[in-house]
């Protein structure tokens, strides 16, 4: 089982804006932890700060016993952390194959793992030698996720993975995440689709105004509509 992730008193400033204001967050090893909250709560900033794309101005971030808060993003990635950003951030002038090669830091891509990825995202096989810039938005999202998982990771940070995906692909993504979790990978997942969050999440942390304001099991939150309304301003029934 992979190591757990812990943030203690993490602050992040972006220019003159104080976005994270003392985040205390844990993602237990080998489980999928959902990071939920209203727009602007600080979820994406939290993932980017963990990844080293934005530097924490105060506090501690650790994966197991390894401190991350002082590392550059490239060094965080070398520790086995995969990141699929909300913006997808694919290299438009490179092919699908070349994008995935960039994600394979440990050496040549494993054919069996690629076949496993293609089972969930067959469009990537179809457009293997096509420029990533020619893909649809949903296909770019698939590529971004595939690049994060092209090699086994210890920790996966995934931001809004179902955004722009057709329902059939959302189902494939859910199956993919469940299989990854079964291998013992720690996952921290931001997701606006509450039904997806309820299906794949073990734990949940809810953010508001740059802090974590709720922690518990995803099952308990999914069963409590009043708590959903208080924390998120919506209920599971609103996604019927």
TrEMBL record:
Boundaries of every ABC transporter domain copy: 5-234
Keywords: Amino-acid transport, ATP-binding, Nucleotide-binding, Transport
GO molecular function terms listed in the Swiss-Prot or TrEMBL record: ATP binding; ATP hydrolysis activity; branched-chain amino acid transmembrane transporter activity
GO biological process, one term: L-amino acid transport
CDD domains tied to this protein: ABC_TM1139_LivF_branched
InterPro entries membership: AAA+_ATPase (IPR003593), ABC_transporter-like_ATP-bd (IPR003439), ABC_transporter-like_CS (IPR017871), BCAA_Transport_ATP-bd_LivF (IPR052156), P-loop_NTPase (IPR027417)
Highest taxon above the source species: Bacteria
Family, per entry: Belongs to the ABC transporter superfamily.
Protein name: Amino acid/amide ABC transporter ATP-binding protein 2 (HAAT family)
């Amino acid at each position: 089982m992979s190591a757990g992730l812990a943030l203690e008193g993490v602050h992040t400033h972006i220019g003159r804006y104080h976005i994270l204001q003392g985040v205390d967050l844990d993602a237990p090893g080998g489980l999928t932890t959902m990071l939920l909250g209203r727009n602007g709560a600080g979820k994406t900033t939290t993932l980017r700060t963990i990844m080293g794309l934005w530097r924490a101005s105060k506090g501690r971030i650790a994966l197991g016993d390894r401190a991350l808060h002082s590392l550059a993003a490239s060094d965080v990635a070398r520790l086995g952390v995969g990141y699929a950003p909300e913006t997808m951030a694919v290299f438009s002038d490179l092919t699908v194959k070349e994008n995935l090669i960039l994600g394979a830091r440990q050496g040549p891509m494993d054919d069996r793992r690629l076949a496993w990825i293609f089972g969930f995202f067959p469009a990537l096989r179809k457009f293997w030698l096509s420029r990533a810039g020619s893909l649809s938005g949903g296909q770019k999202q698939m590529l971004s996720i595939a690049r994060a998982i092209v090699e086994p990771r210890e920790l996966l940070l995934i931001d809004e993975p179902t955004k722009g995906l057709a329902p059939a692909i959302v189902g494939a993504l859910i199956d993919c995440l469940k299989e990854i979790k079964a291998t013992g990978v720690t996952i921290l997942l931001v997701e606006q689709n509450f039904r997806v969050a309820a299906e794949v999440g073990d734990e949940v942390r809810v953010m508001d105004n740059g802090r974590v304001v709720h922690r518990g099991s995803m099952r308990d939150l999914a069963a409590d509509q009043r708590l959903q309304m208080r924390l998120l301003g919506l209920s599971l029934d609103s996604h019927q």
